[in-house]
Amino acid sequence: MGEIKFYDTLQAKVREFRPLDPPEVTLYTCGPTVYNYAHIGNFRTFAFEDLLRRFLEFKGLRVRHVMNITDVDDKTIAGAAREKKSLREYTAFYTQAFLEDMKTLGMLPPNVQPLATDSIPDILALVQKLIDREYAYVADDGSVYYRIAQFERYGRLSKKKLDGNVAGARVDVDEYEKEEGADFVLWKAAKEGEPSWDSPWGKGRPGWHIECSAMCMRHLGETVDIHAGGEDLIFPHHENEIAQSEAATGKPFVHYWLHAKHLLVNGEKMSKSQGNFFTLRDLLVKGYDPMAIRFALLSVHYRHSLNFTLEGLKESGEIVKKLDDCYWQCLSRISASEAPGKAVGKIAEKGTVTPDMERALEDDLNVAAFVANMLEHITDLNKALPGMGRADLIECVRFFKGLDALLGLDIAAIDVVPDGIRTVLGQYSDARKAKDFSRSDVLRKEIEKTGWLVKDGRPGEPSTVKKIRRVWDIKK
Ligand SMILES: [Zn+2]
Question: How far from the centroid of its chain's Cα atoms is residue 239's Cα?
Answer without folding.
Answer: 22
